[in-house]
């Protein structure tokens, strides 16, 4: 019985340690930013181990209910059996005492029939009580033994069934966990790590960022700010003639349209002349710009 309780405590400790292992793997997977395959594999493995510990928790609860609980009842059963045995021994001692009294009465006063008869009647009562008590004790002992054998058989069967169910599920899930570990692509993770190490745009951490930035600066030297300003100025100069040419072409086309248009009334000619002057002034402003 003590070994059973020790096994139950070990099972609970294994359950707690398995939960702790799953938690550690989950945190490591969440903090892994470079090795994507490793992160996914550890995440799946942590979920599988969590499922295994859930089955272990169910097994522990079933052991507690169907094995440990039944064994705990034997404390009261054994206590009651000890009390019955103690009562039987008291009755037996009482019978022996009555027999001694009868023997003394026969030795000391063999002719005192009243005292001898009284001692004999007390001895008969004690003997009858002893017979009843012994019979009851025999029945109690037989019942206790039968119950012990039946319950022990049932407890062992429940224990084996619980362990067999748990280990069958555990083997199934451990097979899945083994496949998940095999799915981790270490070569791809290594190549990804190398790319991250050489890439300054997406640094992994402070140390890798500094090293990768230094290496990139050595491989691709940056241009000076003065050269950048000169390039921008030359680009603006190249773009400005295009704008002036465009403004001139627009103004000339508008003037041609106005010259070829038919003549109307004097007021209309005056308005057209004003429009033409405004257009020419706007074109001159465009050219000056």
State which percent range the strand residues make up. Answer: under 5%
Query: What is the name of the CATH architecture of the domain at 2-193?
Result: Up-down Bundle
CATH topology annotation of the domain at 2-193 = Substrate Binding Domain Of Dnak, Chain:A, Domain 2
Morphology call:
rod-shaped
Count of helix runs: 8
The low-confidence parts are: 206-216, 218-232, 234-275
User: Can you tell me the CATH class of the domain at 2-193?
Assistant: Mainly Alpha
Helical percentage: over 70%
**CATH homologous superfamily assignment of the domain at 2-193:** Arfaptin homology (AH) domain/BAR domain
Secondary structure tally: strands: 0
Largest sheet, if any? none
Cα(first) to Cα(last) distance is: 104 Å
How confident overall, as mean pLDDT?
73
* Cα radius of gyration in angstroms: 53 Å
What is the helix/strand order?
Answer: HHHHHHHH
- Helix-strand makeup class: mainly alpha
């Amino acid at each position: 019985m003590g070994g059973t309780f020790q096994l139950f405590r070990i099972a609970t400790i294994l359950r707690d340690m398995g939960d702790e292992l799953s938690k550690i793997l989950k945190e490591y997977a969440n903090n892994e930013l470079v090795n994507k395959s490793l992160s996914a594999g550890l995440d799946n493995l942590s979920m599988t181990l969590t499922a295994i510990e859930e089955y272990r928790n169910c097994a522990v609860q079933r052991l507690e209910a169907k094995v440990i609980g039944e064994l705990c009842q034997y404390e009261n059963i054994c206590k009651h059996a000890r009390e019955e045995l103690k009562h039987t021994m008291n009755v037996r001692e009482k019978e022996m005492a009555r027999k001694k009294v009868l023997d003394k009465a026969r030795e000391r006063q063999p002719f005192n029939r009243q005292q001898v008869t009284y001692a004999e009647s007390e001895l008969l009562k004690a003997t009858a009580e002893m017979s009843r008590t012994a019979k009851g004790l025999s029945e109690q002992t037989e019942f206790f033994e039968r119950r012990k054998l039946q319950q022990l058989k049932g407890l062992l069967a429940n224990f084996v069934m619980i362990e067999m169910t748990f280990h069958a599920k555990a083997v199934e899930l451990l097979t899945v966990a083994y496949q998940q570990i095999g799915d981790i692509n270490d070569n791809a993770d290594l190549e990804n790590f190398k790319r991250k190490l050489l890439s300054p745009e997406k640094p992994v951490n402070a140390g890798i960022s500094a090293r990768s930035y230094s290496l990139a600066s050595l491989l691709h030297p940056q241009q000076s700010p003065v050269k950048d300003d000169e390039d921008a100025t030359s680009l603006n100069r190249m773009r400005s003639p295009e704008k002036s040419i465009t403004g001139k072409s627009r103004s000339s086309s508008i003037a041609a349209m106005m010259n070829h248009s038919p003549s109307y009334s004097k007021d209309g000619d005056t308005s057209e002349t004003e429009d033409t002057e405004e257009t020419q002034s706007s074109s001159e402003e465009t050219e000056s710009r």
